[in-house]
Amino acid sequence: MKADLFLLGFVSMALLIAGAFFLRFWKNTKDPLFLGFAAFFILDSGSRIVQTIEYPVFPQWVYVVRLLALLLILAAILHKNWSKG
Prior knowledge:
Strand content: under 5%
Helix content: over 70%
Oligomer: single chain
Order of helices and strands: HHH
Largest sheet: none
Shape: elongated
Radius of gyration: 15 Å
Mean pLDDT: 91
Low-confidence stretches: none
C-alpha cells in the first residue's frame, strides 16, 4: 500500500514537472499546442493528486477530469493542424 501511494505521488510530480516545462515552452513561443499540452499535464497531475489523497477509493468525477484533459489535448492538436491550412 505504501508503494502504491509513493508511485502515485511520483507520477503526480512527474506530470506536474512536464506541465511546467510545456508552460515554459508556451511562454517562449506562444504556440497554443504547448499550452494544450501544459493544461493536459497539469489537469492529469491534479487528478492523480486527488487519487492519492482519496486512496484506495476515489471520486468518480476524476475520470471526467481526465477525459476533459484528453479532449483538450485533442482540440489543441486539431487546432494546430487546421490553422496551417
